[in-house]
Design brief:
The protein has 660 residues and is mostly beta strands. Helices cover 4% and strands 59% of the residues. It is globular and about 95 Å long.
Length: 660
């Protein structure tokens, strides 16, 4: 479920709610086949529940830049509580774009304080060229529509009804209460239509079905009762520029003061003079602090003290090039649910905070205490504040981290009365060759303004214990058991919603004969009221080798996953005249002989499946033939992979297939 999408010039961010699965794919909103190739390879940042992930088939996720999808590996278990944030840079917009920028800076010394400082100024501008539309040219009628659309994309829509010869179209006209509507005619109609997705309850039509050839069939639902409208959206040529001034004085490890001021101009539609009153906006930040200040009493050291504070403000009209904040930034305030509302992330935002930290001791025995206080004013009427305390300690092989946080938020226009509490405790202790671990996490959220219709709050409680090897060993292992309980608040009563149990294990050996063995496994069961028990199994075994003597390195992997994956639908997409391989019915007509292509898109339906995969990677060098010779300065890479997936319980054949 894509919850919110926020354009930021060349950058975009999507917040996606997870599902009970370890796999995606999660679609980012477009595909190359549809003419929407907008992701620059390697430019994305993927975050799962606030944790930055690493790309790679043997790490956390893989991404397909062509179809715009992110698929998570066995290492990341995605649940219904998971929130995924994907930030990526657009590779191509609808228009040719010119980017200009420049900057200058100077170093200086503050006379009275003998402190170093620096000043910087920079300007950057990005501008679309309306005469360089990548998919064709704008006609006079198109430019007239754009001129009258202002900044409203729903007004920048050309007509989508084309009358054709009788029986050669797809739809016929009909009258419904005095309104002309269009009805699909499988035997051929008099009109061809172009539909576009407007959003839930913003359109008049819905996608009713796909024919056997993948042709989309739309049906009229009524005014604002559907998700699609008739028309051809026209891309609006944008122009954006930002000027930035920054100043810094002092040393971030001692005493410092820094400030930043930004002025931006963002014109969403260069071809229209309407709605230009909100193009200009500003953003500013001021921060300072004292770091690493010693505390003494009668010659005795009492540790060190850090004190910092900041204030920052962003106008609603200011649009940065990169992402300013995501839903995760509002979660500590208890506002992650509100932050998912359309347009929330673009509203004005003022945040201020102060932090004090005290620490004493060292590696063998030490203590660090930290306290935070923050305030937030968002939009025109929403306010929030939060208080947090954190403690870290280490003593005689033991370590611990403890966090207690509470936040409250209120809104006088769009009522909410939120309180959020969070506790997190982690303790571990080294006992000879093993390290016992325990952790506890409790989160509670409620909105006093919600009385009926949906849950007025939730609470999540997770308790885990584990055992692992002591650090510094060649053989490392870990076993972890976690139980999670989730409740929802309905009409003043807490009702159980989910009881999950998860066992995780991992093993990694040191190098032996140039080889290393790595194994990981996860087993998770979920019980919900009035539903069958759900089970997820993930396992991986990798054997890798680095044999320098024969100039070869290799890896042999075996993986099993059992989860629920989305059902894919076949869709026929128009890509331009002579740019596709298929006709409008999804029939292959030859490379470059058609106007359409065929892609697979995820649906809301899920199916339980078990997947097994085995692969062998072998890279062989030929330096032994002579490093300085051309026939020795090359290498070969071989990949052999076997993969199979089944929706039945009979998976013995799959396991044997990949083992053999």
């Amino acid at each position: 479920e894509i919850l919110a999408g926020s354009p930021r010039g060349l950058y975009r961010t999507l917040q996606i709610r997870g599902q009970e699965s370890n796999q995606g794919p999660y679609f980012l909103g477009g595909s190359a086949a549809a003419g929407n190739l907008f992701i620059i390879a390697g430019s994305e940042r993927v975050t799962l529940d606030g944790q930055l992930l690493t790309r790679g088939s043997d790490r956390d996720y893989v991404i397909d830049y062509v179809t715009g999808t992110v698929t998570f590996t066995y290492r990341r278990l995605i649940t219904a509580e998971s929130t995924i944030v994907v930030e990526y840079e657009e590779g191509e917009g609808p228009y040719g774009r010119t980017v200009l920028g420049g900057g200058a800076g100077a170093l200086f010394q503050v006379p009275l304080f003998n402190a170093p400082g620096r000043f910087q100024a920079r300007v950057i501008r990005e501008k679309d060229d309306p005469a360089r539309l990548r998919t064709g040219e704008l006609g006079e009628e198109d430019e007239t529509i754009l001129a009258g659309a202002g900044d409203d994309p729903y007004q920048a829509v050309a007509g989508g009804v084309v009358q054709v010869a009788p029986g050669e179209g797809e739809y016929d006209q009909a009258d419904e209460g005095g309104k002309t509507i269009y009805v699909f005619n499988p035997d051929g109609g008099d009109y061809d239509l172009t539909f576009f997705y407007a959003g839930p309850d913003l359109g008049d039509y819905d996608l009713d079905q796909l024919t056997a050839t993948g042709q989309k069939v739309f049906v009229h639902r009524g005014d604002q009762q559907g998700s699609y409208l008739i028309g051809r959206p026209l891309p609006m040529p944008e122009s954006q520029s930002i000027a930035t001034l920054t100043a810094f004085v002092g040393d971030t490890m001692s005493v410092f003061l820094e400030g930043e001021w930004n002025a931006g101009n963002y014109d969403r539609n260069q071809l229209s003079s309407l709605d230009n009153d909100d193009n200009e906006g500003t953003a500013a930040r001021l921060a300072g602090g004292l770091k690493n200040r010693p505390l003494k009493l009668g010659g005795m050291s009492l540790g060190r003290l850090d004190m910092t504070g900041f204030w920052e403000n962003k106008d609603a009209e200011f649009k940065p090039f990169q992402v300013y904040k995501t839903v995760f930034d509002y979660d500590p305030w208890g506002l992650s649910d509100r932050a998912r509302q359309d347009g929330f992330l673009d509203q004005s935002d003022t945040e201020a905070g102060a932090e004090a930290a005290w620490r004493i001791g060292g590696e063998k025995a030490g203590l660090r205490l930290k306290g935070n206080y923050g305030t937030l004013a968002h939009g025109t009427s929403l306010t929030a504040d939060q208080v947090a305390g954190n403690a870290d300690w280490n003593l005689l092989g033991g370590r611990g981290n403890h966090l207690v946080q509470t936040a409250e938020a209120a809104d006088t226009v769009d009522p909410l009365d939120i309180k959020r509490d969070l506790q997190r405790h982690e303790v571990s202790w080294r006992v000879g060759p093993v390290v016992p671990k325990a952790r506890y996490r409790f989160q509670k959220w409620r909105d006093g303004q919600i009385t009926v219709g949906r849950a007025a709050g939730f609470r999540l409680e997770e308790t885990a214990v584990g055992l692992g090897s002591a650090p510094g060993k060649s053989l490392t292992w870990e076993v972890d058991f976690e139980r999670g309980l989730a409740d929802s608040l309905y009409t003043g009563q807490w009702k159980p919603q989910r009881d999950s149990r998860t066992v995780r294990s991992g093993l990694a050996t040191g190098r032996f004969a140039g080889m290393r063995l790595l194994g990981e496994g996860t087993y998770r069961t979920i019980q919900e009221p009035d539903r069958a028990e759900q089970t997820t199994r993930l396992a991986r075994l990798d054997l890798s080798g680095d044999w320098d003597r024969i100039f070869a390195d290799w890896s042999l992997g075996y993986r099993v996953n059992n989860s629920r994956s989305p059902v894919l639908d076949r869709q026929v997409l128009f890509v331009g005249e002579g740019l596709g391989d298929y006709d409008q019915d999804g029939q292959f007509v030859g490379e470059g002989q058609g106007d359409y292509t065929v892609v697979l898109a995820a649906t809301d339906s899920l199916v339980a499946a078990t997947g097994v995969r085995a692969d062998l990677n072998w890279r062989q060098g030929f330096q032994f033939l002579g490093k300085e010779r051309w026939y020795g300065a090359w290498s070969s890479l071989s990949l052999v992979s076997v993969e199979s997936r089944s929706t039945t319980e009979d998976v013995e054949g799959l396991l044997l297939l990949c083992l053999l």
